[in-house]
Amino acid sequence: MAAQRIDLETVRHVARLARLRLSSEEETRMQEDLSAVLAYVDKLNQLPTDDLEPTAQVGEAGTPLREDRITNQPETEALLANAPDRQGGFFRVPRIID
Amino acid sequence: MASETAMAAENYEAVIGLEVHAHLATQSKLFCGCANSFGAGPNENVCPVCMAMPGVLPVLNRDAVELAIRMGLAAHCAIARESIFARKSYFYPDLPKGYQISMYERPLCVGGYVEIEANGERRRIRLVRIHMEEDAGKNIHEDGTSLVDFNRSGVPLVEIVSEPDIRSAAEAAAYLRELRALLRYTGASEARMEEGNLRCDVNVSVRPRGVEQFGTKTEIKNLNSIRFVEKAIAHEVARQIDILEAGGRIMQETHLWDPVREETRPMRSKEFANDYRYFPEPDLPPLRVTPEWIESIRVALPELPAARRERYVNALGLSRYEAAILTEEREVGDYFESVAAGLRNAKTAANWVMTEVLRVVNETGKPLAHAVPSARETGALLAMVEDGAISLNAAKTAFMAMCQSGKPAATIVRELGLAQVSDEAAIAEACDQIIETHLRKVGEYRAGRDKLFGFFVGAVMKAMGGRANPRLVNEILKRKLDQ
Fold it and tell me: What is the arithmetic mean of pLDDT over B182-193?
């Protein structure tokens, strides 16, 4: 099965979803890289998996669960310390228009 | 024009599905030990996990899972033995990780239904699923800037997705009221729309009656009261019918409800909306739930509203309407049952709770337990009515005084002198006096003017300050006049 080459439009779409601004050189390089990744996935797709459960994780245990207890103290100042901009206890960001 | 629109509306059927988000009533957040509380100062309930600092890992809150399962069982869902958290990716300032941890292909609760009563008809609204997810933070918009508070980031939610089984605004409201009742009965959520811990998105389309295929749907967001949900749906259904009648096409778009102008308007369409690139959350292994755990949750469930309604109708003889009102809030039903326990007729308790008790609760805006006397005292007061010791009107006066002073029923009735006179000798004496002073009217009555009987009753009641037992006055007067 021939690996399908990803087109430039798709590269640009994915870049926009990821909020990345790519130069045309980068777009071309990404096209190569992503196509190679997809080619590898295509190869995996050749394996017979009809009888297998989809496996997103390995391991038997299942996710650990914690007790429902408040264990964190307010640390507003520490957590805001790296904020590029703030107003009182809030993070300040450019106005969101919607 | 109006009748033309109405006629056009008759030819269409609305197809409505609801997506409801409810905050789970846990102490802490879904994946970290921050407080899950409403009303803290900005960014007080935050930590590196819910603010997505590098290197942190989520650890799932057991009680959040349990509350979600409770709601799932209450809505007759199948509980998945294994469910999988997924990342839903999008960028927004209130979403610190750049993705929301949700469930996608393998939700916790599958199928199920909610039973509603609307327009005197009982119907089942089927559910697609109930899944768990974390909430995002909150944006506050000011002039030229936006402020972000992450207190809500990571608060546990269930999203309850209905099939498009709802056919009118009234049914949507009934469905929401029933969901709210289920969330509260199970303790899964406080389900207060005004505090934002119950939110609703609506999908609406219309189709000509008899047509199987769905029309193009629009989504309405920003609905934070049941009344708005009803109004927004009614508005949107009418808008779509108008467009179709004019030969137009419905655009698949998201609308915002404007509660001031009472209309829906389209949101600026997002170019890449709904391209969320879901994939399994690598930081969380699958959630495994044992049958024993599910069973232990099932046996601990309280009697749910639908079962309670049936019992009120079948065992207590209430109407469906009364049963619906009394079961909407668990504490109202509990209160009604305690009051009714001491009475011969449950209807007396039902009428009283629906009129007097709920009126006081609504007027004071206080929770039931603080607004009205204890069920025991209210029961004692109504027992006096049943026994003929006080009149219904006197009971109303006494009840208001009890609400204000907190004194027991017996004390209030004594203090206000509300006791009804059931002393036959005293009533007979009053009747004799009235008869003596109105001999001419007595003659007319005996000659056949039956209508005068009411006059005598009124006169006796007046002579006794309105406190005579009316049944006894009727009996004794009749005996004396007819002899």
Answer: 95
Q: Could you write out the three-class secondary structure of chain A?
A: CCCCCCCHHHHHHHHHHCCCCCCHHHHHHHHHHHHHHHHHHHHHHCCCCCCCCCCCCCCCCCCCEECCCCCCCCCHHHHHCCCCCEECCEEEEECCCC
**Is B30 in the same domain as B137?**
yes
> How far apart are alpha carbons A95 and B141 in whole angstroms?
7
Contact predicate B445/B438, CB 8 Å: no
Distance from the Cα of A5 to chain B's closest Cα (Å) equals 20
Chain B residues with beta carbon closer than 8 angstroms to that of A62: 82, 285-288
Q: Which of B293, B322, B351 finishes a domain?
A: B293
Number of domains forming the structure of chain B? 3
Greatest CA span in chain B, whole angstroms?
102
- Where are any strands of DSSP class E within B11-76? 12-23, 60-61
pLDDT for the residue numbered B1? 44
Q: Which range has the worst mean pLDDT, B106-110, B154-158, B212-216? A: B212-216
CA-based nearest residue to B339, from B321, B355, B320: B355
Which residues 49-88 on chain A approach chain B with CB closer than 8 angstroms?
A: 56-57, 59, 61-72, 74-76, 79-80, 87-88
B190 in the same domain as B88: yes
With CB atoms and an 8 Å threshold, state whether A68 touches B61: yes
Mean pLDDT score, B247-257: 89
CA dihedral sign, ordered B209, B210, B216, B220: positive
Q: Would you state the structure tokens that stand for residue B392, as one six-digit string?
A: 């219904």
CA neighbor of B40 nearest in space, from B195, B248, B177 = B195
The pLDDT > 90 percentage for chain A reads 56
- B197 with B313, same domain: the answer is no
* Residue type present at position B175: Y
Euclidean distance between CA atoms B71 and B67, whole angstroms: 6
CATH code of the domain in which B464 resides = 1.10.10.410
Region A49-60 average pLDDT? 76
Domain range enclosing B205:
2-293
**Residue B298 included in any domain:** no
Residues of B in contact with A92 (CB under 8 A): 145-148
Evaluate whether residue B332 is within a structural domain. Answer: yes
| B145 and B263 belong to one structural domain | yes
B455 in the same domain as B373: no
Looking at per-residue confidence, does B434 or A60 come out higher? B434
Q: Does B22 lie in the same domain as B93?
A: yes
Going by pLDDT thresholds of 50, 70 and 90, the confidence category of residue A1 is very low
* A72 contacts B33? CB cut-off 8 A: yes
Same domain, B217 and B317: no
Query: What are the chain B neighbours of A79 within 8 Å (beta carbons)?
Result: 43, 46-48, 51
Q: Do B135 and B164 reside in the same domain of the chain?
A: yes
Could you give the angle at the alpha carbon of B88 between the alpha carbons of B125 and B156, nearest 5°? 65
Q: Which of B245, B270, B293 is the last residue of a domain?
A: B293
Q: Which of A61-75, B42-56, B192-206, B457-471 bottoms out in mean pLDDT, i.e. has the lowest?
A: B457-471
